[in-house]
Amino acid sequence: MKVAVIGATHAGVFAAKQIKAELADASIDVFERKDTVSFLSCGIALWLGDHVSSPDKMFYESPESLTAQGINMHMKTEVTKADLAKKEVHSQDLTTGESTVASYDKIVITTGSKAIMPPIPGIDSDKVYLSKSWDDAKTLKEVTAGTKRVVVIGAGYIGAELAEQLSLNGQKVTLIDGFDRVLAKNTAPEFSAIFEQEYRDHGVNLALGQMVQGFKETADGIQVETDQGTYEGDIAILGLGFKPATDLFTGQVDMLPNGAIEVNPYMESSVPGVFAAGDAATVFYNPTQKQDYIPLATNAVRQGLLVGKNIEEAKVAYPGTQATSAVELYDWAFAGTGLTKEGAAAKGIEAETAIIEEDYRPDFMLTTTKVKAALTYEKGTKRIIGGAFMAKHDISQAANAVSLAIENKMTVDQLALSDFFFQPNFSQPINYLSSVAMAAAAQES
Ligand SMILES: Cc1cc2nc3c(=O)[nH]c(=O)nc-3n(C[C@H](O)[C@H](O)[C@H](O)COP(=O)(O)OP(=O)(O)OC[C@H]3O[C@@H](n4cnc5c(N)ncnc54)[C@H](O)[C@@H]3O)c2cc1C
User: Fold this and answer.
1) What's the CA-to-centroid distance between 370 and ligand 1, angstroms?
2) Counting Cβ atoms within 10 Å, is residue 380 exposed (0-12), middle (13-18) or buried (19+)?
3) What's the pLDDT score for residue 445?
4) Which of 131, 179, 373, 429 could form a disulfide with 436 if both were Cys (CB 3.0 to 4.6 A apart)?
């Protein structure tokens, strides 16, 4: 079998490796316009804050390691056109300029996503930066070494992490968002409030509930104008989210309105023999039981693996996603999964949230600390659709447990009586996960 894989960060790398694992004789051509593969963007803010041992370790594969696994790597080679019906791929070697056309039995689209850049006047200024690729990372590392004031636009995970690390580096940071709280899409107001206090305590100017209307270069930096004020920085960094990089395939395959390629549970698109995975594709979102667009490495990796498992015949179905994710800001660990009450309302689901705060282990221990826990469920059915945990302690696996509960359509009553261990080093007789489920069950009874 001859397979073309277009794009090689996470989805493409995992797809190519798994195809090789399933079909040792397959001939796999991977096309990647950059000279690196498998870059972990999640390390960018950490690198800016000097928490990365070596930037080389922000890659888990290289073109050479994939070549050694029997995969034909075409690096610095851009796919310029693809005829999906004919399974024809047109590519250009960006070093030599040479163009090639080749036919395949199957095509895998893993072209990922690109940063959302709304048509705001001045947004194309050289003083406005992005944070996605390895090139962006190197540029930000170099540029922020010489800046004192940075305006970060977008207080989702990416902007929130950049603002934190840059403020800890001693920069004067302004964090702007159209929502009136930080991490508004990721968590409940009670959690955002704690982070907002930390930002203020670390000198971050929070400009929330404001829409950016323009960027103006000045002699020594850039002015960011919103509907409520003007903020000065040496540079601005955008963290406004991502959209699928699938323009090449428009009109050839079914897509969501934003360009995400619709895939079935076996990662096959509406064109037989054409697969898609990762940020280029849709995901099945278990909290809503609908197709959605949720660009996360966790989905890219699992969907890439599934492309490999299903490339010959549909064998293993994707279990969907809860968009489980985590962040650490100013020593606060936060992990969440699924929807918040506000997020559920936006998706047309009537939901309720129970929130508790308690020590994670008994107070006879010499130390303990508070955990804030939230559980969101659909009103009426009591089906769990979201959860969030926050503490100055590692609570991350609790979000993974709720993720499983959502995936398996559990109710709050079932989670309340699930078997979680008790041992004083780790937990109370009633674990905080059981506690929040009991609180949810009680408030619904
Ligand atoms: C700052 C940041 C932090 C993040 N943190 C997390 C995190 O903590 N956890 C998490 O789960 N996710 C995180 N994500 C999201 C995660 O990085 C993405 O979901 C993931 O990179 C998607 O992988 P992908 O392979 O689908 O697409 P991409 O990473 O977008 O890669 C697509 C690849 O395709 C190549 N390509 C595109 N078009 C062509 C073409 N025409 N020809 C040749 N090559 C092409 C591109 O060069 C690129 O290498 C973060 C993202 C960012 C930006």
Assistant:
1) 35
2) exposed
3) 82
4) 373
